[in-house]
Amino acid sequence: MTTVTSTRATYHQANKSLPAKEAFTWLKEGWQLFVKAPFKLLGLSFVTLLAAGLIQALAGPIGLGISKWVGPLLATVMWLAIANLAENNKLRLSGGTLRSWTNVALWSLTGPVIAWIQFQIGLC
């Protein structure tokens, strides 16, 4: 079952297709969120991309492996800021529990594993 949540309604459908107008609704609501705090969102996006880039610039495969682990954590920070903007009309980085952040950190370890597999294939 596919569930799509919008600020207007929640849709539950047995199949994986949605009406085409829902894509427009999704884009419109995203734009409305962006207009609430454009400079803060752009700044936060820039800082997360800069952090990922600087980590990836570390020497050898170490920097790439660490950046593959930190990338999902930075994406989660961005997601948390956007979710708080949608819920509270304020761009905050607060939220989540220690357990949820631990789960995100553990889940994002799949990034270095995939990078290691790519390195092994590249050595062949």
Describe the structure.
By secondary structure, the protein is mainly alpha-helical. Helix content is about 70%, strand content about 5%. The protein has 5 helices and 2 strands. It has helices at about 20-35, 40-55, 60-90, 100-105, 110-124; strands at about 1-5, 10-15. It has a two-stranded antiparallel sheet with strand order 1-2. Helix 2 (about 40-55) runs antiparallel to helix 3 and helix 3 packs antiparallel against helix 5 (about 110-124).
At a glance:
By secondary structure, this protein is mostly helical.
Measure the end-to-end span.
41 Å
Structural class by SSE content: mainly alpha
Q: What is the ordering of alpha helices and beta strands?
A: EEHHHHH
Gyration radius, rounded: 18 Å
For the largest beta-sheet, the strand count, sense and barrel status come to:
2 strands, antiparallel
Q: Please, what is the average pLDDT? A: 80
